[in-house]
Design brief:
By secondary structure, the protein is of the alpha+beta class. About 25% of the residues lie in helices and about 35% in strands. It contains three helices and three strands. It has a three-stranded antiparallel sheet with strand order 1-2-3, with no helix packed on it. A hairpin with a 5-residue loop joins β1 and β2. The longest helix is centred in the N-terminal third of the chain and has 10 residues. It is rod-shaped and about 75 Å long. It starts with 11 loop residues before the first helix and ends in a 5-residue tail after the last strand.
């Protein structure tokens, strides 16, 4: 842990690099903010599928990635299947 007397400083060259190459989008990303176009990427994404086979084999499955706030997310998956047996 740093004590209150420890100070970290950027060099003049590092400061100039940040100021010269900074954009509004980069600053918003560094602060954890999402612009209007980026917020569309934060929707729920996933996939579902099904199978049908011989002798009554069948199943369904899915997974979804769900954003939670700006910096978290959850992934939920499910599966249900029945396999047919020979008589």
């Amino acid at each position: 842990m740093l004590s209150s007397t420890d100070t970290r400083r950027l060099t003049d060259e590092q400061r100039r690099e940040i100021v010269d190459n900074n954009t509004e989008e980069k600053a918003a990303a560094a602060r954890g903010e999402l612009g209007e176009s980026r917020s569309l990427e934060r929707g729920i994404h996933g996939e579902i599928g099904a199978m049908i086979g011989s002798h009554g084999t069948r199943g369904i499955y899915g997974t979804a990635e769900i954003p939670l706030g700006d910096n978290a997310g959850a992934i939920v998956s499910f599966e249900s299947s029945r396999f047919g047996y020979r008589r």
